[in-house]
Amino acid sequence: MACAGDTMTIGIAANLLALSGLIAFVAWWTYPATEAVRLRNALLLQKAHASDFTWVPPHFPEGFKVERRPPSPEFREVVKALGADQTVSDWDAALTLAIHLTEHAEDKGPVRADLLTTYRAIRDGYGYCADFVRVFIALAHTRGMTARQWAFSFDGFGGHGHTLVEVFDRQRSRWLMLDVFNNFHAVDAVTGEVLGALEYRESLLGHRQAAMHPNGPGRLGFVHEHKALEYYRRGVHQWYLLWGNAVFSYDAHPLVRVAGRISRTLARVAATLTSAQPRIRIYETPENAEQVRHMFALQRTLLWMVGLIVLLLATLIVQLLSVAGTVRSNP
Q1: Nearest to 133 by CA among 117, 153, 154, 119
Q2: What's the pTM value of the predicted model, to 2 decimals?
Q3: What does the DSSP assignment read for 98-119?
Q4: What is the pLDDT of residue 1?
Q5: d(CA 42, CA 27)
């Protein structure tokens, strides 16, 4: 006949087996890295409304993580040295910042570090699109402008995709798009007006004519315009907006900072599980409705799995405490 201690041991073993299997399944689910991005996006996904993409500063929508933290002294010095002060227009300042970042671009590889490290690496020729966007947003905030981050994917809101920025031009009272990494912006082919992100998306769908203009003399991401159009059109039905621009606050978050000392991957996990990482809102259209439903279904599955892992961990702690108590009472 099995004693209570044997039953408890079997219970702990069963719990450990279930917990290990569940964690192993989640880890397998995150391979390759592009799938890990899909899971992260699913966890961060929020229901979107049309007004989520048309708001203008200084009126920020509910839940949008606006950067309130003062910029670092290093970024203040960069903006000052570039002459991108308040005496020039917002658009001219935005171009100055973008040109500065692509001045030495050589596509040497991603950085994925804190803002200052990323900025220095970009100046040495490193950086992918997300690196350029984060640093640009930091510089724009330092200059006193509001920027927000758009992204699009090619694989159902997974990790294959691209990211770009919009700057709010206070003189025009409009959002204007910049592809900082690829060193271009778009203008209306008829009026010559600089386009916002969704206006450029309309041109990709053939609803208006647009032309690509270089931001400055740096490396062009696409030498031939038709190649850029092919690239953008591949992801035209998978656009989404990151629900925040608090890049300095991200780096300053205690859990992100601690995790970042171990690895940037762990820092991103910590940011996703806390309030540091902004949520995302998909620009929903009839063409992507099924993909959006799939992402919300994936979100529900992930939340159930996270809840089950927490429950198993709590049960395991109770079991171990019970065993410890039994050992103390029976020396």
Answers
A1: 119
A2: 0.92
A3: HHHHHTT--------S-HHHHH
A4: 44
A5: 16
Which residue carries 């696409």 as its tokens?
A: 222
Give the sign of the dihedral formed by CA 312, CA 313, CA 315, CA 316: positive
Q: Give the C-alpha distances (Å, rounded to integers) separating 56 from 42, 60, 61, 173.
A: 26, 7, 9, 8
| pLDDT tens digits, one per residue of 21-54 | 888 888 888 888 899 999 999 999 999 999 999 9
Q: How many residues does the chain have?
A: 331
Q: What is the CA radius of gyration of the chain?
A: 24
Query: Buried b vs exposed e over 238-265: b needs ≥16 C-beta within 10 Å?
Result: bbbbbbbbbbbbbbebebbeebbeeebe
Cα angle for residues 161, 121, 85 (degrees, 5° grid) = 90
- What is the H or E stretch that residue 162 is in? strand 161-169
pLDDT of residue 300: 97
**pLDDT beyond 80 at 306:** yes
Q: What is the pLDDT of residues 141-171, one digit of tens each?
A: 999 999 999 999 999 999 999 999 999 999 9
pLDDT tens-digit profile of 166-202? 999 999 999 999 999 999 999 999 999 999 999 999 9
Q: Which residue has the tokens 């606006």?
A: 66
Token output for 180: 């900082």
- The tokens for 124 are 């040495």
**DSSP secondary structure letter of residue 95:** H
The neighbour count for residue 298, using CB atoms within 10 Å, is 19
- Tens of pLDDT, residue by residue over 311-322, are 988 888 888 888
Lowest-confidence range among 12-16, 58-62, 212-216, 246-250?
Answer: 12-16
CB 284 within 8 A of CB 292: yes
Sheet containing 279-282: give its strands across.
45-46, 279-282, 239-243, 147-153, 161-169, 174-178
CB neighbours of residue 331 within 10 Å: 4
Give the residue among 200, 195, 191, 271 at the shortest CA–CA distance from 231.
Answer: 200
